Amino acid sequence: MRATATVRDLRDQIRSGRRSAVEVCRETLTRIERLEPSLHAFNSVTTDLALARASELDAQRDRWRDAPLLGVPIALKDNLCTRGVRTTASSRMLESFVPPYNATVVERLCQAGAVVIGKTNCDEFAMGSSTENSAFGPSRNPWALDRIPGGSSGGSAVAVAARMATVALGSDTGGSIRQPAALCGVVGLKPTYGRVSRYGLLAFASSLDQIGPLTRTVYDAAVTLTVLAGADPADATSASTPASDYTAGLTGDIRGARVGVPSSLLENGVEPDVLRAFRAALETLASRGATLVDLELPHARHAIAVYYLIATAEASSNLARYDGVRYGFRAADRPAQAGRHEQTDALRTMYAQTREIGFGPEVKRRIMLGTYVLSAGYYDAYYLKAQQVRTLILRDYDRAFERADVVAMPTSPTAAFKIGERVDDPLQMYLADVFTVSANLAGLPAISVPCGFTTEGLPVGLQLTGRRFHEATLLRIADAYEREAPWHTEEPRISKEVRI
Amino acid sequence: MSYEPVIGLEIHAHLLTASKIFCGCSAAFGGGPNTHVCAVCLGLPGALPVLNRAAVDFAVRAGLALGCTIHETSIFARKNYFYPDLPKGYQISQYERPLATSGVVELSSGAERRCVGITRVHLEEDAGKSLHEGFPDSDRKTYLDYNRSGVGLIEIVTEPDLRSAADAAEFFSRLRAILVWLGVNDGNMEEGSLRCDANVSVRPAGADLLGTKAEVKNLNSFRFLQHALEYEIDRQIDIIREGGRVVQETRLWDANTGRTVSMRSKEQAHDYRYFPEPDLPPLFVDAARVAAIRNAMPELPDARRRRFVDEYALPDYDAGQLTQSRALADYVEATIRAGAPPKLASNWIMGELARKLKEIGVDIAAAPLEPDRLAGLVALIEQGAISGSMAKHVFEKMFASGLTAQTIVKAEGLTQIDDESAILDLVDGILTNNADAVAQYRAGKTATFGFLVGQVMKAAGGKANPKRVNALLRRALEAR
Lengths: 500, 480
Fold this sequence. Notes:
The complex is a heterodimer.
Chain A: H1 7-16, H2 21-39, E1 42-45, H3 47-59, H4 61-64, E2 73-77, H5 104-111, E3 115-120, H6 154-161, E4 167-172, H7 178-184, E5 187-190, E6 210-215, H8 218-228, E7 258-261, H9 272-287, E8 291-294, H10 303-318, H11 340-358, H12 361-373, H13 380-403, E9 406-410, H14 426-430, H15 437-442, E10 446-453, E11 459-466, H16 471-484, H17 493-497
Helix pairs in contact in A: 2-3, 6-7, 8-16, 10-12, 10-13
Chain B: E1 3-14, H1 53-65, E2 69-70, E3 73-74, E4 76-80, E5 90-94, E6 100-107, E7 114-125, E8 129-131, E9 143-145, E10 152-158, H2 165-182, E11 194-204, E12 214-217, H3 222-241, E13 249-254, E14 259-265, E15 275-276, E16 283-284, H4 287-295, H5 301-312, H6 316-322, H7 326-337, H8 342-360, H9 371-383, H10 388-401, H11 405-411, H12 420-433, H13 435-442, H14 448-459, H15 466-479
Parallel strand pairs in B: 12-13
Antiparallel strand pairs in B: 1-10, 1-11, 2-6, 3-16, 4-5, 4-15, 6-7, 7-10, 8-9, 11-12, 13-14
């Protein structure tokens, strides 16, 4: 059995004593060692901590016997705080920042018996769709090394696709879990806003951010969500709605499920291969007893515009704390001079240079956009208007859910593009999120599952969006699809070549 | 032409909650630098605020006491600006939808009663402290202490209803008394737990339109407030008289020079880019919670003052003085309940007790003399058992020893000579020995009466009941 099988396989093997957590951990680390030079999925690999943790689990096997993620190697996006482990958000600003605390999700994973093996590369502060905005260089798509893995949680998607981790966590503000999952051929789940605590997630856009799993199978996503979900007293926006065992409903039976398809949205801008794979996926769902329902999302075409107003506005404020005063990067102090006015000048210069050097171009672009959007005289026209349209988008979905249980779309309009292809064209880059941002704006859960390949052999994802807190429905339909169309068993060649 | 100032105040008051408004750190003043801090109040990446419910209850209490409408839904907002003592680069405050609005406070000193409108009361967090002075390298460095960062505040904004520096100072003092009375704020201006800024403009007396205003900051004592406003009002009037125009700007009171100086102009004013705080859901305070807070509120100073007049027949002046603080008013009522006649109790509390407490620098709440002890002293006076001057002596002893008045009087044999025949004997003796004075009195020089009283009292060793001495002496003089 390969080192990184699925959660279920691994857990059962370790529980029964057929393999030890240390063995699994070692093999995973070896795979990372071999693959990392080609793929650059990780910013940090926590070899020693992971091995220590694994041997602790082995030593106390009885105590951990029922842990749902027993011995499972997990990679964390590098914007999730880990106590004592560098957390950079792939920014020069936080290149050497070591948090004194764990994100709530990290605590929950540890309590579930997981073994954290490292921190994954991403677009700087999760701003991007390709990982090309990482200060530490892009990750590479294991299906085609000259292509991007998607983003911003690209490193997490690469780690799971190339079996360098069984589960990875990502964060999704406008598609940052689902899009890289689709482009790397893995499962990516963005839960309902408030389903998973954001405490310890470096905020990009607080009203949109949500943490979720990237996994090889829908079952694994369900197990991980069961561990992550639930109210957190440290996050006032976490929901009190009770979480459940999300694996319970994975029966394979979707007879009578209504799958809505906003056909008119798909008329333009979608690659033919993607469209073909998407239509085939719909037929598969229908063949298992689902009913396809044609519907409209009239305001969805404004989603990108609305998203880039709200997300940048919030980001401009969220990133203000990176000012060089208390932690992180600080541009060299100028020689100190006496006098209050001189000190004020020196302070302003320090702020400006710290942020000029510490942030990459995309982050600065978004901070400027967001600052503008919130400025006196523009707030009503941009921020407020965007919030109003956001409400209309939410209503579109409410109406859609009167007729359908989930809404299906391709996750991304294209398969993975070439590294460097869109870096000079931010607008083109932003369009990568065209099908994913609505779920964030409306706070809805959405999942991407592998649904085939382009003629060039690049993975394509099917996205299903559900009602608030109806993750179980999403997972049931996605699981049923996966049973019928097991695309997830395909493995990139580079990954197969490492025979561990 | 005469000019009229128009003044509105913005007051920031620390809430007396045990912990900060968005985290569990201690909100206490002081402590070693950066010891009351955590990921949340240091603005570390990924940390999130969680609202302290006690802070909301305190703010509601203040809002109710200031006659405000408490809104069922209010919304937190971010006020964005860069400053080293503001760790997140924004302050969590309330903006478009504050917790409480539309209140009123009555000022009642002087002849007429005046009303000061309260525009709003909202919740927010304080910033840390920049220490620009006091270190050997302070000419080159500023030190930062984040203990204060995230301490809960209410900001209280008044309507521009104040018409003089004195009025403004009186209002501020009254507001302070209310907040301290409620237990919402400790009233400590030196430690910065109560701070005041003012918006000031002047206009021709009787005009409807408002003049251009200046915001004056750093008015952190009643004296500073009044002096700064007087200075600023004169400054603006001078500008207008000389044909100039007042500029809209923020000015800083400099207590050393006694002047206000320009801090930043309107053009340099910050654009705070307020927007709703996405990390905190809207704040819901339902009617039941407001009612519960209202029911648990102490009787407010105004109501108590009126009750002191109605129930105890105290003069309005006394009632006003005795309701300056809740502890004082509680002391008064306890003394009265222990049997002291109200007016006599009032005199002793405002007089001897206040003097003595001031002398030893102790607040009424910690007075070493219990109200029932004071009542015991007052009862002895009322019964005529001791004279006023004896009482002062006894009071000193009580204050120092904690013994009852009765015990001291007995131990020192201070009981007043009240026996009619004993006093008459003394009177007879004095009249016999002072024939001249008696003759003068009879001749119409009634001022001699005082001299004779003094002689009797002296003969009695100060222990005779002065009232009775008066009466008996007069009777004896008329009889002879």
